[in-house]
Structures are given as C-alpha cells and as structure tokens.
Amino acid sequence: MFDVLVIGGGNAALCAALMAREAGASVQLVEAAPREWRGGNSQHTRNLRCMHEAPQDVLVDAYPEEEYWQDLLKVTGGLTDERLARIAIRASSSCRDWMRSHGVHFQPSLSGALHVARTNAFFMGGGKALVNAYFRSAERLGVQIRYDTPIASIELDGDRFVAAVSTTGERFTARSCVLAAGGFESNREWLREAWGVNERGERPAENFLIRGTRFNEGVLLKAMIEAGADAIGDPTQAHMVAIDARAPLYDGGICTRIDCVSLGVVVNRDAQRFYDEGEDFWPKRYAIWGRLVAQQPGQIGYSIIDRKAIGRFMPPVFPGTVANTLAELARQLGLPEAPFEQTIAAYNAACRVGTFDHTALDDCHTEGLQPAKTHWARPIDTPPFYGYPLRPGVTFTYLGLKVDEHAAVHFGGRPSPNLFVAGEMMAGNVLGKGYTAGVGMAIGTAFGRIAGTQAARSAAAAKEARHAVA
Hints:
The chain is an alpha+beta fold. It contains twelve helices and 21 strands. The chain has helices at residues 11-22, 65-76, 82-91, 96-101, 126-141, 188-195, 219-226, 282-285, 289-294, 326-333, 337-350, 439-469; strands spanning 2-7, 27-30, 47-49, 106-107, 120-123, 144-146, 151-157, 160-166, 171-179, 209-210, 231-232, 238-244, 265-268, 301-306, 321-323, 351-352, 365-366, 385-397, 400-401, 408-411, 414-421. Strand 20 and strand 21 form a beta hairpin. Helix 2 (65-76) packs across helix 3 and helix 3 (82-91) packs across helix 12. The two termini are 17 Å apart. 53% of the residues are buried.
C-alpha cells in the first residue's frame, strides 16, 4: 500500500506529490488525461503572482502582502477567506527556490504582458514546461504515475479515506489521499445546469468555450459533495475570460485571450457598449470580461480598436477583422451599421485625452458617457480599424470543497484525518468571485504543498499507530 495517493496531474497535484515524497512517503499519482495531455489547466498558465518586499531576481520593485491582499479583496468583492488567502499570499514569497529545485525556471515578464513585471514571475517555457519539470522530478524521486485513469468516487469510512475507485472499477488504496482533480469547467452539462435559462430565454452556457483542459469533468468533485463533504462556492462563478469567439471548444489556452479591451471599446451584438473598458489595469480586470460577455445577448461581444493600439498588447492567435472605415468594419462583423457608428461617435466625442500612458492609471477618460471609460480613453479615429469577436472562455470553476489551513476536507464542519484537497477543487475558499493574474497558481502551489506535507504526516501517524498495536 502506498502512503499517499494523489489524484490529479496539474500544478497542485504535482506540488502535493513532490512534498509528500520529500517527506519520506511513498506516493502514487493518478492522472485522468493521457500522458500527452497531462498537466491539467496548469499547462496553459504563464506565471505566478508573488508577494515580495524588495526586488527579487525576475521581479522588480516590491509587492508587499497588504497590497496583494487588497488586490485580491477588490476583485473578489470580499468573497474570500482572509486567513486562507493570506496563507497563499505569504507562501508565494518563498516558494520559488523550492520550484527551482524541481527544475522550474523563471524569466522576466514579456513585453506584451501588461503591468505584471512587478507582481508576477513568469515560467520560462510557460506552464507546459513547469508541469514537465515537475513530472520529471517526481519520476526521479520515485513517485509512481498512472495516466488515463479518471477517478469516479472515493470510498470513505466516516470521514476517513479508504480508497479511490476509477471509472473502470479499479481500486487505489493508500494511507492518505490528496484530491487535486480540478473543477467542472469541461462538463458542459453541469455548466448548462448551473447557468440555466436567462431572462431572454437563452441558455448562456451553450455559448461558452473552455480555455483549459477537456478532462476537468468534475466527476470526483460531485461525488465528494454527494458523499457529504462540505462544499463552498457558487457554481456559476469561475475564472472566465473574454476570448476569441473563433477559439476551439477546449484547450485554447492563453493565445486565444483578447488583450486589447482596455485600448478601445467593447460592444455587444446590438453595437452598444456595456462596461468600463478602462476601469483598472488589465491583469486585475481581464477575468471579469468573460462573465460580462456571458450576460450579453447571444453571449457575444466585439473588441474594437484602431491603428493607435497596435503594438501595445499581446497579439492573439487569430488576426482581427480589418477595415478602413467604421461602416465597413460593422458590416464585416455583422453588427448593425448605424448604431455602431453612433456608439463610436458618442464615445469619441466624450473622450477627454490628457497624457496617454498605458503603463499607468492615466488621465485619459470620458465625460458624460454611460458607461464611462475611466482610463486610456482615446478616440477611435485612426484607420485601419480592427474588431475581435468575443465569447466567454471558462478557465476553471469556483465551486469546491471547504478546507482549513491544513488543506483537510471537511465533513459536517470536522476535518478529515487523512483526506486533503488542493488546487481548483478548493480555490473557491479564496476566490468567491473575480480573479487577478497568477493568483490561481499561488493558491495551487501553496495548498498543494500543504496538502502533500499533511498527507505524508497522516500516513506516518497511521503507520506508527499500526506498529504500536502490533
């Protein structure tokens, strides 16, 4: 029997497996995906949001704990457990040396990655390089890895883990277990059920795309909730980004994100603006736009810019629709021509251009316009004009299992002695809603490491108790 069973194959699962193995436990990791698709959503990530009190290698200036906390508090609207959030924040300041010891390398932020040189450490080679490094380290340390092994349920003795059962009926026993199998974002039936029917008679989830892995079906999450594990979070809340409407249904990743929103305007299919595009720095606001688009008719929007914006954002994988006149752009995008021109004209007339600076909260704003554009407001008047169609792209869902500072799964308010959870399956404790770039990796890394350490301790205690009886 293994000491620790880890279910999942993303960042949190790998952190748990590595920490448990370093603590002396024998570890088996089971991953639902085949080897070539291993890594969960972590394979699509780019960086880790890091607290630091002074410049650190690839991070400039300082990003102290209180500022990090206030950034998180703002995007979540207070829907966060401060104690658990601060655990993740503090851990983000000291985890990079450990990550390097397992083969992860860092690099400065990319030139098109706006406003994150101070706050976020980028992985050299991206998330796929990170998970590959962790898998290599796990294999070298003797972690036993099984691919193509989705887990359907957990056998419990009260609140104690006994075994995990795969979809084929195979049982995996261990002295303790870490659940890190992700949310339910690729379960389209569950998304449709959660989002239901809106006031227009539409089923919004029908038009959602999945930015991340196709293997996060939420089967184990649902099984745990049905087995009595304490749940937390709203099933409609998620890390949801406005991505290119032409993106694939699954695994589009970072390259399908549209990052020019704050440089122009966004309209719905009726050619009407519906939110402040310049509310705050893009890394603090990009993850609200998927939900905003989800609330629009047909769950579609269009990001509109002119030539002045080109070169100021990370270009997406698909080129924008290009036209020399606004009327022509409207026709190509299938938008009502007259309302579109009226919307742009009203916006242009309302712009009060001061000193444009996309690296700061500048003084370029609108007056007398609803919704306002608070920063970076410049007229869209320099051809050619560009348009990008937007759909809601779900990265991961926030419904999860309630935890404490030891990452223990709870049943009726009591922590399990040998069942732990990390990553997306518990991120809703910290992320009740909203998102800011890199915080998911901070949560997964912190609680993955905690869960692995606690699982190893639990397994060691079980062995000691058995020897004492013998």
